[in-house]
Amino acid sequence: xxxxxxxxxxxxxxxxxxxxxxxxxxxxxxxxxxxxxxxxxxxxxxxxxxxxxxxxxxxxxxxxxxxxxxxxxxxxxxxx
Length: 80
Fold this sequence. Notes:
The chain is mainly alpha-helical and 80 residues long. It has helices at 15-46, 50-79. The longest helix is centred in the middle third of the chain and has 32 residues, at 15-46. The two termini are 24 Å apart.
């Protein structure tokens, strides 16, 4: 088991970090809301059952949320 050395300078966030976090949450929220609003039209146009469309939306939103978390971790590694 390896130990992670503690940094000599403690992390201090700034407004840029806060703004990035807020914009990421807003982007995900807007994507989710847009998808929910047009889900009925999408299912009619694609001739897909509503149950299948609900599962597809849930999977898409799940992976979108995971993508935000992974990119946040990557940004912490690159910036911090």
